[in-house]
Design goal:
With 520 residues, this protein is an alpha/beta fold. The chain contains 19 helices and 12 strands.
């Protein structure tokens, strides 16, 4: 049986459903200016040396490492853009070469924050087969993620460590958060102080130049839409064909985002349980209300008494929450999820759930000269580091002591299943140095070629209203495609969305603003 941490690291996708105790020292407000060529010239002058991907170094599938059209490389960027002459870090890349007449590169970000682009592209290269006729499709691990100097906080917390009991003892909670800060600093190294979307956007521009592209052609999912929006503000003259799918908020703070995420996931779970109880063989029976109560009790019982494997590793209620958060992103996964939950509830066997979470695979190994391996909690640690670095709201410790009970009640009321996990980032950003206010204040009214925003009406992670709000903020350059379906993002679940996105990327055929795709 795989551990909780292995589950969350392997299952990281366009989702931010899984959380861990993470803390970061946050950068000051970042300047939006174009890079100063004299200072950054050596980074902008580099060329990527592509080579065969190494299965022993990156733990990639055999068909990927043997595919001559798939290569791996790296780009070097400054650790601190304010002092580019000091330390540097290497970002891992994977390229799937264009199968037809190449018109440039298409960079892809799968979300998170904390989603690894190298592993993401390796697992989804077939999904880009059509658009790959005209582009080299490139995935990258952002700074602090995957094979690019991964951050860590020393592993995922025990479900009973008290992080959910701050209302009873706020002073003890603050002590735990300070201890978490020390672990993060110790385990992550200097990259932790230089996380955040503003810096990743700068890295993105260095990658664009190293690929030999005059303009950035980009497809971002979920958090990747935040990254794309920041890029349009920082480098408006470098924007090529850009698509943002599953549009993130640019204005709501960590607490508001957490509540929205918990509510969206709870709604998706309720819809799943309603569907399940209407089908024969559902392990929850035929009463959807009773099914919701059963789901809550299963998670509570497993947190209190985890299943124990022979090697000592445990399977907890939060493992169930992790898999639910991923599986509920796609309605297509509901039958498999129903069967997997049946194995757990009827037989006490979590293996099918673990397979759904992707936990049976091994963690990727870092390249020679880098850290020995990617930490098990890297996806969670990176998610927290970026989200806190992007959020300027930071009430002090005294306010946390006063309000932690109110916050906990709000999250529990919104979602008895996901409330606890979605509360974690709120607690861990309270009392910390404020993150940048550049995204909230300055990413607006961009002057770029028109780009496409895709919003899905039934998205459990990024509600459709965020698409409308972000489009309004970004101004007349943003064109909205309304996907009437369900699931997180539209490109992988809707043939209509995929066709329209590919047509724009390949042929610059932009849909009319406000046009839609029917639910499939």
């Amino acid at each position: 049986m795989r551990s909780t941490s292995a589950l969350t690291a392997a299952a990281a996708t366009a989702s931010a459903a899984t959380l861990a105790l993470t803390l970061t020292a946050l950068p000051a407000k970042a300047a939006p200016a174009e890079p100063a060529k004299p200072d950054l010239g050596r980074f902008y002058a580099q060329k990527i040396k592509w080579a065969a991907c190494k299965p022993d170094a990156q733990n990639l599938p055999e068909d990927v490492t043997k595919d001559k059209d798939i290569t791996c490389g790296k780009v070097t960027v400054p650790l601190d853009y304010a002092h580019p002459g000091r330390a540097t870090l290497d970002l891992a890349l994977m390229r799937v070469k264009a199968s037809g007449d190449k018109r440039g590169s298409l960079l892809v970000n799968f979300g998170g924050p904390g989603g690894a682009g190298v592993a993401g592209l390796a697992g989804s290269k077939k999904d880009f087969g059509y658009v790959g006729k005209g582009y080299d499709v490139v995935g990258f691990d952002p700074r602090g993620v995957g094979l690019s100097e991964p951050v860590s906080c020393g592993g995922r917390p025990d479900p009973g460590d008290g992080t959910g009991d701050g209302a009873d003892d706020p002073a003890a909670l603050l002590k735990q958060l300070r201890e978490a800060a020390a672990r993060c600093d110790k385990e992550s190294g200097p990259v932790l102080q230089h996380m955040g979307t503003v810096n990743v956007s700068r890295d993105l521009d260095v990658i664009r130049q190293a690929l030999g592209d005059k303009k950035l052609n980009y497809l971002g999912f979920s958090y990747g839409t935040r990254l794309g929006a920041v890029y349009t503000s920082q480098f408006p003259k470098k924007v090529g064909r850009m698509v943002l799918d599953g549009v993130d908020t640019l204005t709501e703070n960590v607490e508001e985002q957490g509540l929205v995420g918990a509510e969206g996931r709870q709604t998706a779970l309720d819809n799943f349980l309603l569907w399940c109880t209407k089908n024969a063989g559902c392990v929850f029976g035929k009463d959807s209300r009773a099914a919701r109560q059963t789901m809550v009790k299963v998670i509570e019982d497993l947190d209190a008494h985890p299943l124990q494997a022979m090697d000592g590793q445990e399977f907890t209620g939060q493992d169930v929450v992790s898999v639910l958060g991923t599986a509920l992103y796609s309605r297509q996964a509901w039958p498999a999820l129903s069967q997997a939950l049946g194995g757990l509830l009827a037989d006490g066997d979590p293996r099918a759930l673990l397979r759904m979470g992707g936990a049976m695979g091994e963690r990727p190994q870092a390249p020679q000269g880098a850290r020995a391996e990617v930490p098990e909690d890297n996806a969670d640690a990176a998610l927290m580091a970026v989200n806190c670095a992007d959020d300027p709201d930071r009430p002090d410790a005294k306010r946390l002591e006063r309000e932690v009970g109110r916050i906990q009640r709000e999250f529990e009321e919104v979602s008895p299943v996901f409330g606890k996990s979605m509360l974690t980032p709120v607690l861990l950003c309270f009392g910390r140095p404020a993150g940048t206010d550049y995204i909230r204040n300055d990413v607006r009214d961009v002057d770029t070629p028109k780009f496409l925003l895709v919003g899905t009406r039934g998205d459990p992670a990024t509600p459709y209203r965020w698409t409308e709000e972000t489009a309004k903020r970004l101004g007349s350059s943003a064109v909205v495609l309304d996907n009437k379906g369900d699931g997180h993002t539209g490109y992988f679940g809707s043939k209509c969305v995929k066709a329209k996105v590919d047509a724009f990327l390949l042929y610059k055929e932009m849909p009319k603003n406000g046009s839609s795709c029917a639910a499939e």
